[in-house]
Amino acid sequence: MQTKTLIMTALAVLVLPALAAQDVMQFHPRQLKVLAENDKVRVLRFAPMKGDTTPMHSHPQTVVYVVKGGKIRLSEPDGKSNIVELKSGETQIRGPVTHSDEALDDMEVILVELKK
Which domain holds residue 40? Predict the structure, then answer.
């Protein structure tokens, strides 16, 4: 019985992140628009209104430019969440991430996803 539990745990650790790693555009969220895309980059405009949510999805390495700042709740696949305040004019370089989000304010962000 212990071996079966170990195998199931190992499969969950290996398979669940892959299931969570989904392209956000497959959900057709109204708060996201593709501005440009080629085989190397994709440029997205993320302009949620307060209360808008996006289901669990993934981004590759991304450059983030905040046009209009605000607060957003980011949740990880393991259920942990935190509130992040994005400030207007701020630019960040972020590594690959899987998360869901909920806008706590109206905001506008430009994301430049770097494809492999």
Answer: 2-114
How many domains in the chain? 1
Dist CA 48 CA 72 (whole Å): 10
Output the CA angle 27-88-100, nearest 5 degrees: 25
Under a CB-based contact definition with an 8 Å cutoff, are residues 94 and 113 in contact? Answer: no
Q: What confidence tens digit (pLDDT) does each residue in 2-53 have? A: 655 544 444 444 444 444 468 888 888 899 999 999 999 999 999 999 999 9
Tokens of 104: 């706590």
* Closest C-alpha among 60, 57, 62, 61 to residue 26: 57
Q: The CATH number of the domain where 10 resides is what?
A: 2.60.120.10
- Cβ contact 109:85 at 8 Å: no
Closest CA to 31 of 111, 114, 113, 108: 108
